[in-house]
């Protein structure tokens, strides 16, 4: 199956994450005319894509033609209300793909006809440049063809991983869904630390951004493990070792990361309600 042969896609919510996925789909060749978007607060860019490329934005009949894949990309807190409204646009043979943190397959299924194929996923924002990763778990009625269609759509946004145990999704969300924010925080903190060490804000920002993006690119392109790359920077008795003694001390980055991921995982479980 190709991206072009998936059939009509209905995207409900084109905010930061739904919008990033939409960008990934269009950049990688999903025909815009095949996409219908329901978004009450459409950004100017989305409106331009609608008028320039034929994407259907908030049409009167979102289910004409009937969607093959319905992507739910609204906040978990409004998911129940939104589903009650959009259920009328969901054909029984469409696969419903939720990207909401915390919301379980059972939460989604409660608003849909019995036997609706549902895939719960967690993408991340690098999807916008085709460099995201999406983790998926399907309910028992998703067909091989629907799994393939969802995989095709999601791989336009980067890597795709399938898991069998839905209980792991909150931990997945805490690692890869929220993870880009941790990396951006690292870039912000590194720039701030450069200013504190005497650099101008402009130079500190430039150094921090080039370093974080360059290190990420090196991690990907080299295929080496992060600890090997870290050790390659660390000369015995040198400057990096001095910094890492602080950053890796008890209670510092490794411990804080574990606590942060545990907090995000707990929050995911709360969002199910
Ligand atoms: N932002 C991220 O990095 C990630 C977000 N997610 C999940 O993606 C979902 C969306 O999150 P964001 O994009 O960050 O939030 P957002 O607030 O940027 O986007 C949600 C969009 O839904 C729209 N919306 C509200 N009511 C609607 C309705 N009745 N019909 C259609 N659209 C409606 C809003 O106008 C908004 O643009 C959440 O469930 C979140 O858990 C998952 C992984 C990563
Ligand atoms: O912060 C959130 O709840 C969403 C889910 C993962 C990333 N953003």
Automatic annotation (TrEMBL):
Its main location: cytoplasm. Residues 166-271 form the Pyrroline-5-carboxylate reductase dimerisation domain. Keywords: Amino-acid biosynthesis, Cytoplasm, NADP, Oxidoreductase, Proline biosynthesis. NADP(+) binds at residues 73-76. It catalyses: L-proline + NADP(+) = (S)-1-pyrroline-5-carboxylate + NADPH + 2 H(+); L-proline + NAD(+) = (S)-1-pyrroline-5-carboxylate + NADH + 2 H(+). Pathway: Amino-acid biosynthesis; L-proline biosynthesis; L-proline from L-glutamate 5-semialdehyde: step 1/1. GO terms for cellular component: cytoplasm. It comes from the Bacteria. InterPro entries: 6-PGluconate_DH-like_C_sf, NAD(P)-bd_dom_sf, P5C_Rdtase_cat_N, P5CR_dimer, Pyrroline-COOH_reductase. GO terms for molecular function: pyrroline-5-carboxylate reductase activity. It is found in: Cytoplasm. GO terms for biological process: L-proline biosynthetic process. Residues 11-102 form the Pyrroline-5-carboxylate reductase catalytic N-terminal domain. Its EC number is 1.5.1.2. Catalyzes the reduction of 1-pyrroline-5-carboxylate (PCA) to L-proline. PANTHER family: PYRROLINE-5-CARBOXYLATE REDUCTASE, PYRROLINE-5-CARBOXYLATE REDUCTASE 3. Belongs to the pyrroline-5-carboxylate reductase family. HAMAP family: P5C_reductase (MF_01925). This is Pyrroline-5-carboxylate reductase.
